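Mods, move this if it's the wrong board.
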Amino acid sequence: QVQLVESGGGLAQAGGSLRLSCAASGGTFTTYAMAWFRQAPGKEREFVAVIRWSGGTTSYADSVKGRFTISRDNNKNMVYLQMNSLKPEDTAAYYCGSTPRFYSNSRDYMEGRTYDYWGLGTQVTVSS
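Not the wrong board. Structure tokens:
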């Protein structure tokens, strides 16, 4: 059973930066892709970024392109989200997801239903 634990959330000012981490563990960890999603109060969970475990191909939501960077460390089973130029609208709980499955349509990796494993989330609050 895969366990994901997020960390690195907190309070930041608009224009500032935070770096989120997600640690994966449990048995023989196998994943095809890992992603970050976020959920603001009263809103649905939304896709932020995804990275393929092998090859490192990335995709981003339009709202974070150019500001956020997803990366991974295969040896440590870690995935990161570097968030720069933060905006108040980035305030949300951020969740890490993992899936061992391949989908031929890359847009499937932008859907929450794709991911089999989730962490409990880490809160990011951006003040104006």
